[in-house]
Write a structure and sequence with these properties.
Keywords: Cell outer membrane, Ion transport, Membrane, Porin, Signal, Transmembrane, Transmembrane beta strand, Transport. By secondary structure, the chain is mostly beta strands. The protein has three helices and 17 strands. It has two domains: 32 residues; 332 residues, Porin, CATH 2.40.160.10.
Length: 367
């Protein structure tokens, strides 16, 4: 199907949801259980040495500090403390208007039940790694990942693809503890094991202290590889500042590839409108690490990288903010291949070490 035809079909498919969104907004009193929400965010970014061969890039990037989106969420009271809940959330490229993830509701699409016993939902949902791991990223601050986040060193590999298709997720909060368990069916004929994902996590939040740990694993569709990811972290608030500390790891059974990243940082509410944060990240890889996106994977081997990043976020209002971000990454050995392939599309050949520097200015609006 040609691109023009695809866009026409996508536009036609969007019309019913746009109409529903308008209805939810104009008839809020008639249907109080349905909420329309979203984020529009864009940024201008310059990156030096994107490919390891000293070629820079200037771009208008979608998202910037948080991915643009619109969504519908609903809650119907069934009585007895039980509710029906649903969420449909679409990612939108604010630079070109395209649907993200090559699907309409690519961010989230689920329905289920909730009550005093917790919640059980079915569909495309965030895994525990995403919900817990991002909570301790020093630069996250509740807005979601940003376009050049240092947690992407190594190729954005520490979250098991963030979302699980065909999944069941159970959540329960009891006092300071929040538990999440997730399971994704593999849907492979003749096997209940191939292609499945499973995991969970536990968060503790009381007063100034927050701690969390999560684990998820995914078996390949052919059963030949199992990828295991984990995350541990904590934060502590004191006065206007919050300190963060975390570690994430990944293991691949096929080839015994190993990846790790550790980070520490600080956020500070300088004024009621201005929040600043900074962090340091240390990444390292070992074993039979290969390229991710080449038709024939090339062996890269061990390597490491260091990154620093700072963010200043200024609130113009309760819904609108402007932000300025800067980061630098210095990679060595096999980490050069992972870093340059992820950002430039191909691993830099014959380069033992490289430094990438970026700066980004953008705006974010919530509705």
């Amino acid at each position: 199907m040609n691109q023009t035809a695809s866009h026409r079909l996508l536009a036609a498919g969007l019309l019913p949801f746009v109409a529903l969104a308008a209805l939810a907004g104009t008839n809020a009193h008639a249907e109080p259980g349905v909420t329309l929400y979203g984020i529009a965010s864009s940024a201008v970014r310059y990156t030096s040495n994107l490919d390891g061969h000293h070629n820079g890039q200037a771009a208008l990037v979608s998202g910037g500090m948080v991915g643009s989106r619109f969504g519908l969420k609903g809650d119907e009271d069934l009585g007895g403390g039980n509710h029906v809940i649903f969420r449909l959330e679409a990612g939108i490229g604010s630079d070109d208007g395209r649907s993200s993830y090559n699907m309409l509701f690519g961010r989230q699409a689920y329905a289920g039940l909730s009550g005093d016993w917790g919640s059980l939902t079915f569909g495309r949902q965030y895994n525990a790694l995403n919900n817990i791991g991002w909570a301790f990223n020093p630069l996250d601050q509740g807005w979601g990942n940003f376009w050049s986040d240092p947690l992407y060193i190594g190729g954005d590999i520490f979250f098991q693809d963030y979302r699980i298709n065909n999944s069941m997720v159970y959540k329960k909060t009891a006092g300071p503890f929040t538990l999440q368990l997730d399971y994704g069916t593999g849907e492979q004929p003749g096997s209940l094991a191939r292609g499945i994902t499973l995991g969970g996590g536990l968060m503790f939040q009381q007063g100034a202290l927050a701690l969390g740990a999560a684990y998820d694993q995914r078996k390949s569709a052919d059963g030949g590889n199992t990828v295991r990811n984990y995350s541990v972290g904590g934060s502590y608030a004191f006065g206007k500042a919050t300190a963060y500390l975390g570690h994430m790891g990944r293991r691949e059974s096929a080839g015994d590839a190993r990846f790790n990243i550790a980070f520490a940082g600080l956020g500070y509410q300088l004024t009621p409108a201005l929040h600043v944060s900074g962090a340091y990240y240390r990444y390292w890889q070992g074993g039979n690490v290969t390229t991710q996106f080449q038709d024939v994977p090339a062996l890269l081997g061990s390597g490491n990288a260091d990154s620093i990043a700072v963010v200043a976020d200024y609130a113009l209002s309760k819904r609108t903010s402007v932000y300025l971000e800067a980061d630098a990454v210095h990679a060595r050995g096999g980490a050069v291949g992972r870093e340059t392939e992820y950002w430039a599309g191909a691993p830099a050949a014959g380069v033992d070490r490289t430094t990438r520097v970026g700066v980004m200015l953008g705006m974010r609006h919530h509705f």
